[in-house]
Amino acid sequence: MIDIDLYKAKKLYPFQEQTVTTILNELDDNGVDFNLLYQLPTGGGKTVIFSEIAKQYIARTKKKILILTHRIELSVQTSKQLSAISVTNKIINSEVKELPNQDEYQCFIAMVETLHNRLNDDGNFIKDVGLVIVDEAHYNSFRKIFQYYLNCNILGVTATPLSSNKALPLKDNYNKLLVGESISGLIEKGYLSNADTFSYDVNLHGLKIGTNGDFTITSSDTLYSNYFMQEKLIFAYEEVSLGQKTLIFNAGIETSIRVYESFKKLKYNIRHLDSTFSDKDRKEILAWFKTTPNAILTSVGILTTGFDEPTVKTIIINRATRSLTLYHQMIGRGSRRLPDKNQFQVIDLGNNVRRFGLWQDYINWQDAFKFPDRFLESRITEIEDMEFEVDYEFPKGYDKFMDTEKLESFNIKERYHLHIDNGQKGKKAVEESLENHFSVILAAAKDMDHGFEILNFLQDHIEHRLKHYTKCISKSTDNYFKYLLETYNRQLSQKIRTHINAS
Predict the structure, then answer these.
(1) Angle in degrees, CA 467, 468, 469, rounded to 5
(2) What is the distance between the terminal CA atoms of the chain, rounded to a whole angstrom?
(3) Residues 237 and 246: beta-carbon distance below 8 Å
(4) In what order do the strands lie in the sheet with 107-111?
(5) Among residues 357, 383, 397, 436, which is most buried (max CB within 10 A)?
(6) CA–CA separation, 413 vs 406, rounded Å?
(7) Which neighbouring-strand residues pair with 403?
(8) pTM higher than 0.70 for the full model?
(9) Quick check: 274 and 303 in contact, CB under 8 A?
(10) Element containing residue 153 per DSSP (H, E)
(11) What is the pLDDT of residues 414-467, one digit of tens each?
(12) C-alpha span between 379 and 141 (Å, rounded)
C-alpha cells in the first residue's frame, strides 16, 4: 500500500511545463495512430513530465492512460507522483488477475511482462485507453504490447533514444523524436550538477563481446577481479573521492564482492548490493547509504534505473561498456542537484570516456534516431575497439634481445597531436616512429640478417602502432593502411641494408 500522504507532488520547472504543452499539442495535431518519442537526460524529470501529461490528457479526452515500466520501483515512483496530483491510478502487479472495477481509475501502471500475460488471456484486459506512455522506451520488451493498442497514441520517454537491440531501431515504432533539454543546458540552468571526470587508462585485453553487443560479464569479472585492477580502483578512490559518498558500478557480482573485500580490508565503510538480495536487505542497505556521509556502495546493475540518491558525490564506473545508454544511466545517478551540491566526480576505469566522450558532450539524438546504424558505426567498431584500447604486450623474452622499453615509451598518438598543435604535419609522427623502431633494431642487430630477423619479430608491433596513427586521421581506409604499412617496412628495410653491416 502506497502512503501518498507522505508524498508531496513535485512542482514542474518552466521547461517541463513547456514540454508538457508541446507534447500534448503534437498528439492533438497528429491524431490517433501517431507515436511520439521524447528524449530528456537522466535527472531532467521524465516522471514528473509524463505524469502531468497524463493528468491533462485525461481532462481533455476523458480517456484512460496506460503507463508501462520495466521495474517495480519505477511503477511505485510513478504511482506516487500521479496520486499526489490527484490522478487515480492502479499498479497492475502479479497479484492483479482481473480488473472488474476499471471505472474507479483514470490511469493504470503495469510492468510489461505482467501486462503481456494478462493481454494474452484477454486482449481487452484494460478498456478505453487513449494514450500509452512507455518509460525507458529504449528497451525492446515493450514492443510486444503495442499490437494491443493500435488505435491509441504511444508516447515513449527515454534519456537515450537508441534501441537496446540495434536490429530493432526505435524509428520502426515511433513516428517522430522530440529532443528535450541537453545535459549542458540543464547544468547551465541549475537543474543538474556538473561532472568532473577522471579517466584512468585500463588495458582491456581479455574482454570478449557477447551476443548483446556488450562485453560479457564473465570476461569482465576475470579482468576486474584481479589484484592489479583492485589496486587501481583503490588508488583512484583515494586520489579523487576519499571520504565522499561513492557509488561503484561493476559488470558482475564476483567483481563487486572482490571490491567489497578489498575496501573492507582497508577499513573503509562499504557495503555490497546485487539482484540476489531480498527486498528487505536492499531497503536496509539503501537506507544506510542515504544516511551515511562517507558510505561506499558497490553494486551490479540494479541501481542504473529507478534509484535516486541525490547525496552521491562520486560515481565510479568500474567496468567497460559498449552501451551509450548504460554509460549515461550510470553517470546520471550522481547528477542530482542539491543546494550544497553543484558538482560531482566521475571516475572512469573502463576507457568509456574514450569510447563515448564526456557525459556533458553534445549528442545529435535526431541522427541517432533516424540513422542508428550510421550513428553507432561512427564510433569504434567491435574489432577496432579492442585493438585501439589494448596496449601492445611484447611476447615473453623479447626484452632479452631488444630494448622493448624504448619502443613502449613512444606514443604515436601523442606525437601526432603534438605536431598538429604546433601547426606541423601529423605524418611527422610516422617518421619519428620509424626512427624509433630503427634505433632499436640498430642497437640489437649483430648483422644485417639479424636486423631483418628483428624487423620480422616487430611486425605485430608495427601494425599495432600504425593502426593507432590511422585512428588519428579523419580519412583512413584499409587500402591506405596497407600502403602505409608497406612503405614503412620498405623504408626500414632500406635503412637496415644501408646502416647495418652484412654478415
Answers:
(1) 90
(2) 89
(3) yes
(4) 89-92, 107-111, 64-69, 129-135, 153-158, 35-39, 176-179
(5) 436
(6) 16
(7) none
(8) yes
(9) no
(10) strand 153-158
(11) 899 899 889 898 899 999 999 999 999 999 999 998 999 899 889 889 988 998
(12) 26
Segments of 396-485 assigned E as strands: none
Report the alpha-carbon distance of residue 56 to residue 303 in Å, rounded: 31
Note the pLDDT tens digit of each residue in 376-422: 766 655 445 555 555 667 777 888 889 999 999 999 988 998 998 89
- Check if the beta carbon of residue 45 is closer than 8 Å to that of residue 119: no
| H/E segment holding residue 417 | helix 412-421
3-state secondary structure of 409: coil
Q: Name the residue among 296, 292, 293 with its Cα closest to residue 262.
A: 296
Answer CATH for 192-362 from 3.40.50.300, 3.20.20.70, 3.90.640.90, 1.20.200.10: 3.40.50.300
**In 148-214, alpha helices (H):** 183-188
Cell of 4: 501518498
CATH superfamily of 4-181: P-loop containing nucleotide triphosphate hydrolases (3.40.50.300)
* Greatest distance between any 2 Cα atoms in the chain: 97
All three cell numbers of 306, joined, read 529507478
**The 3-state secondary structure of 246-307, one letter per residue:** EEEEECCHHHHHHHHHHHHHCCCCEEEECCCCCHHHHHHHHHHHHHCCCCEEEEECCCCCCC
Residue with cell 515493450: 142
**For 468, phi and psi rounded to 5 degrees?**
-65, -40
Q: Confirm if 133 and 158 have CB atoms less than 8 A apart.
A: no
Q: 240-259 b/e with 16+ CB inside 10 Å = b? A: bbeebbbbbbbbbbbbbbbb
d(CA 64, CA 114): 19
**Separation in Å, CA 376 to CA 111, 138, 389, 416, 491:** 29, 15, 18, 26, 37
pLDDT at 219 over 60: yes
Q: How far apart are CA 69 and CA 55, in angstroms?
A: 18
The distance of Cα 462 from the centroid of its chain, to the nearest Å, equals 32
